[in-house]
């Protein structure tokens, strides 16, 4: 059976989640207070309804507890976001993902039992900043305060050298997870594999180790 999703709040964030889930063939219920927003998604989502999700009876009548995953993408109205999340938790929804506006909001959402809290503006800001500071950093995913996954572009300095030649694991303590070349992706590459200029290297490791490696080799 197809997974059933509900997206509450159809702003830029919720709207793009709704659209992408629908494009992936999922069943999506799109919910917003604003009728214009709901009309916009009427042909995109499986169902689209006007509703205020801070009203417990409204959530009940939508059968919200039967959905596999509910995404709360209410933007500026932090109070509504918290209240909606609380009622979803109380209704026993299995997966609740909520967009946080700031760190305090995030703290409260975690306390009341949201399963996943996302902070898209902050996370995208961090990723873009890394990309601006180093032109070799194409993408950046923070795993924790200390560890990250980074996509680096191989330049002339590593062209024709193998992972053994560069001695990356022993010297820097980082692991190359994959190498992308054109459309091909080589997952867990062999240490004898040569790098080429233009390859995209996906590295996992401690931030300071990755930085050292990047400064030396890229
Ligand atoms: P973004 O920053 O992602 O663009 P917005 O703040 O523009 O987010 O959008 C949030 C959406 O959430 C708006 O369309 C708003 O109508 C909707 N919304 C706000 N409160 C509620 C609520 N209580 N119930 C349902 N939808 C709501």
TrEMBL record:
It comes from the Bacteria. GO terms for molecular function: monoatomic cation transmembrane transporter activity. Residues 2-118 form the RCK N-terminal domain. Residues 135-218 form the RCK C-terminal domain. This is Potassium transporter Trk. One of its GO terms (biological process) is potassium ion transport. InterPro entries: NAD(P)-bd_dom_sf, RCK_C, RCK_C_sf, RCK_N, Trk_Ktr_HKT_K-transport.
